[in-house]
Amino acid sequence: MDHVHVDGLSRRRVLGGAAGLAAGAAAVAAGLPTAASAAPAKHSHDLARWRRQAAQVTITRDDWGIPHVVGKTDADAVFGMMYAQAEDDFNRIERNYLVSLGRLAEAEGESAIWQDLRQRLYIDPEELKRDYAKCPSWLRKLMQAWADGLNYFLATHPDVRPRVITRFEPWMPLSFSEGSIGGDIERVPLTQLEAFYANRTVPMTDEERGLLFREPKGSNGMAIAPSHTRDGHALLLINPHTSFFFRSEQHVTSRDGLNAYGAATWGQFFIYQGFNANTGWMHTSSGVDNVDEFAETIVTRSDGRHYYRYGNALRPVTKKTITLSYRTADGGQARRSFTTFATHHGPIVREADGKWIAFALMNKPVEALQQSFLRTKTRDYADFLQVAGFKANSSNNTLFADSKGEIAFLVPQFMPVRNDRFDYRKPVDGSDPATDWRGLHSLRSLPQAVNPRNGWAFNTNNWPWTAAGADSPKASDYPRYFDQAGENPRGPQAIRVLTAQPRFTPQTLIAAAFDTYLTAFARLVPGLVAAWDKLPDGDPQKAALADPIGLLRDWNYRWAADSTATSLAVFWGEALWAPLAQAARDAGMSMWDYLAERATDAQRLTALAAAADRLTQDFGSWQVPWGEINRFQRNDGAIVQTFDDTKPSLPVPFTSAQWGSLASFGARRYPGTKRYYGTSGNSFVAVVEFGPRLRAWAVTAGGASGHPDSPHFNDQAERYASGDLRPVYFYPEDLKGHIERSYRPGAGIPHQASLASMSDGTDSPAES
Q1: Residue 1: how many CA atoms within 13 Å on its side-chain side?
Q2: How many of the other CB atoms lie within 10 Å of CB of 420?
Q3: Do 420 and 435 meet the contact criterion of CB atoms below 8 Å apart?
Q4: What is the model's pTM?
Q5: Which of 286, 272, 273, 289 has the alpha carbon at shortest distance from 396?
């Protein structure tokens, strides 16, 4: 390594060549076994133990293929829950753990090495194993049952060939302890991580810079108090906007008091979005600022050791070698090692302006896993708040309702206390101790709306300051780091539908969740029409755009499958968005505000001409019903689908959430297609009524199974597209007449299935 003794030098100058860190040094691991040739299990008694536990579990599949899992104990229920998930989509379970463990490159090749490195900066398997040993005994039992359920599935299904993980270990759930999509770590740009640790210039992508039109990540949640319902029962809308097929709909019960229904992220043993007989919880991606970047001033001494300034002192930079495996083109495995760096603020993830940037985020896997599971067994708001005391939810707001009639909006409980004179939206000076986190906020000091007088609370990934109308928390009462999201078009739409009904029923709440009004276009289209009106009569655009303007002038701003105005508006909005994204970012404005307030008349009209031309080019006319363009298609069980205009698909009337639609459908063109195909947005949708006897309705995108040959692969598609939620079978008597089959895990499968295909825990070249 080259050593330069000057403060604040760039990464390239401090490190010299790439050889200094062994970053980029790939050693082919000759003779390493692949997953398919893993060593036989040493503990053959496991199979007998798994069979005994399977005998304590019953899985009942209803006529939608939804598994209702009943176990004697919570651990038995978890065992059956994981077995049922694996039956439906083992591929997604394994992939989630390849991602969370930083092992995706072992399956997908060296292109995934930077994603793995990012994960392993925070997730160390050896540390997780030590954490597991210190977990409460009740949690260790659940984690062991988690591993046993998955391993029993593999033992009884030798035809299922894992890509990498041939044996699941009970510590692994600590790597994936929250259920949210993505998570805080995805804020670290992979290109800049690569630039730092590969010691080369890598430009940021347009996606990382926020310049691409893409479906917002997030969700909607609404809680209605008894005072605003017809029958005096609290209501909850659960409307996560995630990648399709991201979660498994399940019902899990035990004699220990577990009775949770809802959506579990593949591979996790808790219901993440859902309800029990008494409480319901809906999580929405939050705009709070609780991850931070610290700009570190680096000093390298003559002995080559790195230090960083902190106050008047120099502290040693922590070094750690991380070795990752990756799949080679010939199907073998190679290894690549990185010397990584960290300060007390967190791992170094990039360089900017000669400073190394440390990235701080929540890393409390044991507490997070406890909070995630225990919330599913809460009985009321007091219970729920006690569980929230773990302060291990970092990325999600919560909408809550219970059978006592209490409702609440809560922000994430993991909120570091900081000095509000610093702008934490940007890297802060790590050498200044005043920028450090000062513990966590108390629950009482967080913005919240508990039992608001107005009778409702909501969140659409927007700021907290409108969550309960006039009864919302006030921005002036809180540090500015409690929001960096601002408002979005779904916020006013949510308030619009919530104030339109004095007395909600489950059915009117469902209707509100699929209300067709597009607030963004109601704000933007009048500016376009006014721009056309101002054109002189001789202007060529006056005649060319007269008919499209006429269509939009008369539009009611509502989506519909047969609406040609919806198609034209969406194509216009997209054409206007892309050229102005950088300008909006530079101005520090939301895209919607910039388009409404800063877009010029010429830009608006040029975008309309481009939209009409594109519609004509792709569909033969600029007047195309929206349902002809916007489609739901599920061709196979692949995680990344290949879409095809020649194959069957269904029209979807709702649009992207970008335009204010509460019902979200993130769709676009793909290589070889002209139609738009959705891959994210509404996924699992449910409405719950907490009366003396709980009632609920739900729908899942596509169906419960990830297997194309299953009748439940796509049997909910029409209901999904039309917002036609089906009744949930929550009580045993609800299931009567709706049972497809009932069985114990492994039942009906020949038990000569051996453990020979399973390893003894050395389940990858990286750990052998």
Answers
A1: 20
A2: 12
A3: no
A4: 0.91
A5: 286
> Residue 706: is it exposed, middle or buried by C-beta count within 10 angstroms (0-12/13-18/19+)?
buried
DSSP lists the bridge partners of residue 309 as 314
What confidence tens digit (pLDDT) does each residue in 520-558 have? 999 999 999 999 999 999 999 999 999 999 999 999 999
**Count of residues in the chain:** 768
Q: Give me the residues paired with residue 400 across strands.
A: 281, 408
For range 681-685, the mean pLDDT: 96
> Taking Cα atoms as reference points, which of 51, 151, 96 lies closest to residue 760?
151
- Which of 366, 315, 302 lies closest to 341 in space, CA to CA? 315
CA distance 138 to 130: 16
CA trace torsion 170, 240, 492, 609 (10° rounding): 120
**Is residue 341 classed as helix, strand or coil in its secondary structure?**
strand
Query: Tokens for 744?
Result: 């114990």
Helices 564-587 and 519-533 cross at an angle (nearest 10°) of 90
Residue 643 CB-density burial (10 A; 0-12 exposed, 13-18 middle, 19+ buried): buried
CB atoms closer than 10 angstroms to residue 397: 28
Higher pLDDT: 90 or 187? It is 90
Kindly tell me the burial class for residue 142, based on how many C-beta atoms sit within 10 Å of its own C-beta (0-12, 13-18, 19 or more): buried
One-letter amino acid for residue 243 of the chain: S
